[in-house]
Write a structure and sequence with these properties.
The complex is a heterodimer of chains A (264) and B (462). Chain A is an alpha/beta fold and 264 residues long. Helix content of chain A is 44%, strand content 20%. Chain A contains ten helices and ten strands. A five-stranded mixed beta sheet of chain A has the order 2-3-1-4-5, sandwiched between helices. Chain A has a five-stranded parallel beta sheet with strand order 7-6-8-9-10, sandwiched between helices. In chain B, the strands form two sheets. In chain B, strands 3-4-5-2-1-6-11-8-12-7 form a ten-stranded mixed beta sheet, sandwiched between helices. Classes of the chains: A alpha/beta (264), B alpha/beta (462). Chains A and B meet through α8 and α9 of A and loops of B. Chain A: One of its GO terms (cellular component) is protein-DNA complex.
Chain lengths: 264, 462
Amino acid sequence: MSQATLQRVQSTDLYDELEQEARQHRGSGFALMFLYSADRLSEMKDAVRGYVEQLSASGAQVREDAAMRTLAVTLPGYSLDAAHYEALLLKQLLEEQRLGEPRITLAALTEPPASSVIKQMAEATRLSTSSDIYIYTEQKSERGRGRILIVDQDAAVRDFLHIRLAMQGYETLQAADGLEALDLIVKWEPDLMITELNLHGIDGLPFIHHIQQLAVKHPPKIVVLTEKRVEQTISQCFESGVDDYVTKPFSPVELDARIRRCLQ
Amino acid sequence: MTAIYYVMIVSALYFVIMMLSFRNIWNISRRAAYSAYNTLSGSELVPSVSLLVPAYNEELTITENVRCLMTLNYPNYEVIVINDGSSDDTLDVLLKEYELEAIPNPEIRGRLDTQRIRGVYHNPQYPHLYVIDKENGGKADSLNAGINLSRYPLISSIDADSLLEKDALIRMARMYMENPEETVAIGGDVRIANGCIIENGAVKEVSLPRKMWPMFQSIEYLKAFLGGRIGWSHINGLIIVSGAFGMFRKDYVIAVGGYRGGYPGEDMNIIIKLHRYMLKNKIPYRVAFCPEAVCWTQAPDSYHILSNQRKRWGRGNLKNMIENRDMLFNPRYKVMGWLTMPYNVIFEALNPYFRITGLLALLGYVLMDMTNWHVLLVFGLVNFLGGYLLSIGALLLEEMAFRRYNKLSDLVKMLLFSALKFVGYHQLGVLWRVQGHIQYLQNNNTWGTMTRQSWKEKSKTA
């Protein structure tokens, strides 16, 4: 006996509601799935509702988060692998109906999460670039937060860093050239910046000097992430107060660790 | 009849050269697409370069230009601006912008003769920028002063009214590294920046000039660089590396005595001297052309300035030819002696006279009624079609390998102007060259006026 309902609720209320529901099902297993589609939300909604209705489990619900353009599907009594199985079938169904490439995030909750964590999960769904089902873990979202400015000419590098850091709970902004970056540092006051040395407008050592002369209360920590492997440049950078220097191609795990150390 | 043979030979030669360009374009476009310039631009193994920027009365464009040169994508280089005794505020503008201080005891290692150096300026915050202030001595003299101060094994001369693309230098260096032993000079591709939108020392949006004179020059440059120089470099017969953007091995430039002062055409002169030196000493060498390294330059946009520039070129070319006449048909100088020099004498320097006599002869025939109109028409058409085909060939090369202009309207415009070029512009070119030669005979040695416009105004008005 399945009862699928659809409610239009305020997005902030939605997360509270989900939190409440998770609390009710404490101990018996509770899976939460977010689906995101940039342009075909209403069609996707109908398809998902149709699918959820024929599930044998009771209490499965579909809710729409209009602000985020996501759908939240609650699956009480589901373990992670069972929910993952359903998610795979659902994904296949959506793809067969040519509803674009949905982004799906999945979590099995053992402890009732805070509504803010659920909101982050919805955000992560939106930001995801892969069509693979992403299994969200609470651990990641609870890490130390900070503001990170990403400066690089290459949009691919910026997006990669942005997604990776956002998933870890950092707030990020991006700048494509040196002058834009200087402007953002004053306006946004980031805790740390990851910067390429090769930029338009102003770059290299003059850029680093300029950052340090900006009128901000706490100048950002600077992690250089660059193609430049010339030893002289590296030593000059450290002399002028750069906190860390990573060369491309880089290991994301190593970069994570270096960022964490800088922010401690 | 000679006129007809002349035209036929010229066209045939042009076509052969252009065929060589076509032969190479596939390689060029592939290496431009697949080279890992970003990785290369961070490597310690890329040789260091000293950029030499002679500046004479450039207060309007110099800051933008230096800003552009300071943000090149290159592992290790220095920028040396040489203020050639400007009468305007070129030096002050630079000193203020970069807060430069005079170095008390500058270390000048080179031994080339130059005018007196008044001072060398530097700011440790911009470790790669040096400014030399010297007494006026001309462009060649400034370059020599720059060579004297430079610390690196490669030098690159850049005009103060030109902007380099961010990757231009590393692209050139990549070509140099293919064969560092033999490469003595590399020329870059010069394009017309009028009409493009310039922001923060970089070309933001490429578009054709809106005014007539720069538009003609755009086509002309495209034809000369893509249609001509790629082919010439293939047979190692390049006679000029544009003064606006070229790279040289410093040791050989010093070995031939540096740049020759006192006369325009120093960019052609240095290349001829390098050819001569290498061939004389039987050292294997090549003068290469790197069409993927692009430099954007401001073209003169009024008749007066353009005519001055062309007269100067005509003058410089003639001077270089007369000075090096011994290389003509001299078997010792191989391609240079048998092909490049004769080509330049007969088809460049003497071109106007052949054309004028041809025209006079034709007029004579017509007046004496020795010809009929359809022969004339055929002659005119063949002449026009031959030239137009060459222009189209250059456009084709551009579209095959580079595609800098990606609007359809730009393409149509280029095709139109390639045709219009034959009515008026070509004839003016002949006139200017003759005027240049007259100046040479009058011993007129000046550089002529060359007024600049600020890059910012440029992007608004042009």
